[in-house]
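Posting this for the archive.
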Amino acid sequence: MNLYVAKVLKMLLTDLPYFDRPAGLVQTITKEDSSGSGKTKVIRFPIEVDVTQEKESVPMIPDDRIKGMFYIEDGGSKHDGGNDWTSDLTLVCWFCPKKISANVEAVSVNAMADIMYLCKKFYNDAPITKLKFNVVSSPVRSASIFSQYVYPEVNTQYLMPPYDFFALKIKASFRLSDSCIEPLTDPDIC
């Protein structure tokens, strides 16, 4: 379900002017990297989970060739009884502020305000109804936001000034409406 909920959140945020690399729900990929020092190093980074398309996975790694990116980490779901559910998500945002505005100090705060504004409304996207995103906290702004990943050494510089980032802990509450569920079709028919 969080894959679907994250898809809606991605759709809401994609058109914001801060991001040119949006992603929905991510999973961690582990690879070996021999670039840089010549020694092989294990790296771990997020890629978007997209079950609707077969496409090249884009690593969600901070990079100064883009102005900004966001992705959503899965924190699980809780059944609240009946058809009601609550999902825990973490929205991770990274920016190269000078590519977004001359007022670089205001980029993160403006992005956070715009995201919070978009989260105030209810959304219906069958089979999920009454979807509401509630920003509950923002972890301390430190590179620990990215601690579950091991980036190529060259990319670690993008976790320091002049680059910026933040994360938002989000609770998504919604109703799973069994009257809105489309029947599954045989894949051979499609």
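Residues 2-13 form the longest helix (12 residues). The domain at 1-176 is CATH 3.30.2000.10 (STM4215-like).
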